[in-house]
C-alpha cells in the first residue's frame, strides 16, 4: 500500500502542479468485487516462446465512481480445473510446496501496475500474466481495494 500512496502523490503532483499531502490515517478504503464467481476464465493456450508453457496476459481496470486519482490495489485469487466444471483455488502455499518439492508450480502469476500515459482519470490499471501447463483451465477472481467504490473489468490481451 505504501507504493500506492507514493504513486498517488506523484500523479497528484503532476496533475495539480504542486505537492499534495496524502495520509493513510484519515482515509477509508473500500473493498469492491463483481458479483460473478470469476472475473475471467479460459485456457492458457498461448505458447510462451521461452519455456513452452501456456500463457495468458490480462489487463485489469479499476474505475472509480468519484475519485479522479483513486488510490487502489488488487487482490487476486486464481482457480484451476481439469474439466471446466469443478474449480479449486490454486493457493500461494501450494505453489511454494510444488517449488520446494522440485517440480515447477502448475500456475505462476505476475502482477504489474500500469502507470503513465495509458492510465486515464478515474482509472487504475494492472497487468496480470499467468503461466502454466499449456491448455490448462484457469479462472481469476479480482478484489479491488480503493479510496472509492470501484468497477472492475478484466480483458485478455494475449
Structural class: alpha+beta
Order of helices and strands: HEEEEEEHEEEE
Q: Main beta sheet: strand number and arrangement? A: 5 strands, antiparallel
> How many β strands by DSSP?
10
Helical stretch tally: 2
Give the CA-CA distance, first to last residue: 28 Å
Backbone CA Rg: 17 Å
Counting structural domains, the number is: 1
**Average pLDDT:** 86
Strand residue content: 35-45%
Helix % is 10-25%
* Unreliable stretches covering 5 or more consecutive residues: none
Tell me the overall shape. elongated
What does this structure look like?
By secondary structure, the chain is an alpha+beta fold. Helices cover 15% and strands 43% of the residues. The longest helix has 15 residues, at 2-16. It is elongated. The mean pLDDT is 86.
Describe what is shown at a glance.
It is built from 2 helices and 10 strands. By secondary structure, the protein is of the alpha+beta class.
Which helices and strands, and how do they pair?
Layout: H1 2-16, E1 30-33, E2 40-43, E3 46-47, E4 54-64, E5 72-81, E6 88-89, H2 92-100, E7 107-114, E8 123-132, E9 137-146, E10 150-156
Antiparallel strand pairs: 1-9, 2-9, 3-4, 4-8, 4-10, 5-6, 5-9, 7-8
